[in-house]
Amino acid sequence: MLSLRGLLVNSRLPKPTCLGIKFQPTTSEERRIHKTQNTTNLLAPTCNYLRLAPRCLHKSSLLLQSVKDKVPMVEPPKKLTEQVATAISPYVRLMRMDRPIGTYLLFWPCAWSIALSANAGCWPDLYMLGLFASGALIMRGAGCTINDLWDRDIDKKVERTRSRPLASGEITPFDAIVFLSAQLSLGLLVLLQLNLECIMLGACSLGLVITYPLMKRITYWPQLVLGMAFNWGALLGWCATQGTVDWSACLPLYFSGICWTIIYDTIYAHQDKKDDVQIGVKSTALRFGDNTKVWLSGFTAAMLSGLTAAGMACDQTLPYYASVGIVAGHLIQQIYSLNIDNATDCAKKFFSNSQVGLILFLGIVLGTLLKSEDTTKETKTNKTAISSGSGSSSSPTINGFVPLPST
Predict the structure, then answer these.
(1) In degrees, to the nearest 5, what angle opens at C-alpha 137 toward C-alphas 131 and 143?
(2) CA-wise closest residue to 180 among 188, 190, 169
(3) How far apart are CA 40 and CA 90, in angstroms?
(4) Rounded to an integer, what distance in angstroms lies between the CA atom of residue 160 and that of residue 335?
(5) For the whole model, what pTM was predicted?
(6) Residue whose C-alpha is closest to residue 164's, from 181, 147, 188, 183
(7) Rounded alpha-carbon distances, angstroms, from residue 269 to 58, 93, 140, 225, 239
């Protein structure tokens, strides 16, 4: 019986000539077959046909490869999570969740006010801090949506903003309005958790939020309107915890916050001043021009004065004033090292202002924890006496005086 190797050699199958190896019979039976057929030019592999390398079947392999090249590659369907992420990504960027610095800057005045209103030796109300933090996130996003709706045509002409969802066409104006309605509804839901005075006071700020984007078309002071809107929480935070606004403390705090906003947003506006000139948009960066550092130094002094007055009204202690001093050093360093013609440096200085808010908040908390209750009670008594005295008649009261009966 012929061996399997002999059958393969004796068969009429095409010989694998691509190996270029001359056939060498090994067994006596293979030599006999080789001599009888006189196949001196036969080529055979040194291994079994079943172990041939893929390159031996070159014709069929090339055919299969050409078929594969002609068939279009079908991408596998995306997962549900990937589809959802792609769908919501424009809305996340619309409300600037990828750039949370604006949320921080909106939250810090609220946190200052809540911490200042805490009783002596007590921590600030954590529930209120969490509530205002969520409100800052929602309302900052709503403000960005309103801003982009007003400025979608302007944003297309500015290099830094042309990739925004509304300017690039990823979201239609109608979709943005629907999304804005949802944001405002959530913001109202947060506001309804507060007392009635807070609800009325918070509703008053909506006009500033809506009209701010228009101010850059009208005046060189849009940052002033932005400061009035962004620091409304300085009034709202105290009202949320105490039921009313202590104007002697909240007004200086609100004034300081406005000055702070003018400082950091003027630095921010210097990034786009070249585009703003071409488009016709106004800002304090264009108003101040080369005298920016002088103007910002003045607003820094005004901010520090307001913070000092707010601390005195609240009987704050050493940690508070130490934090005000650190804030002063931080702002002075910002202004001194600022390069208004370098967009990267302006952005870096702008982002660092979140540290200013945190430093002051920690100073308020530590200062309140070290406050004595006796001093606080004495201050409240003096304020009550002054308010009651102003409400009574202007005639002086003399002890032991008995008025004569009228005739």
Answers:
(1) 125
(2) 188
(3) 76
(4) 23
(5) 0.73
(6) 147
(7) 67, 20, 18, 14, 32
In this prediction, residues 398-406 reach a mean pLDDT of 44
Cβ atoms of 272 and 160 within 8 Å: the answer is yes
* Angle between helix 206-218 and 222-230 (nearest 10): 170
Length of the chain: 407
Place of tokens 């002086």: 396
Which of 116, 134, 138 shows the shortest CA–CA distance to 125?
Answer: 116
The tokens of 338 are what?
């600022």
From 151, 154, 222, 210, select the one nearest 183 (Cα to Cα).
210
Q: What is the DSSP letter of 297?
A: H
Calpha distance 90→85 (Å, rounded) = 9
> How far apart (Å, rounded) are the C-alpha atoms in residues 154 and 254?
31
Token digits of residue 145: 């949506």
The pLDDT mean for the chain works out to 80
> Residue 219: its pLDDT value, please?
92
- C-alpha gyration radius of the chain: 39
Angle, CA of 241, 202 and 183, to the nearest 5°? 115
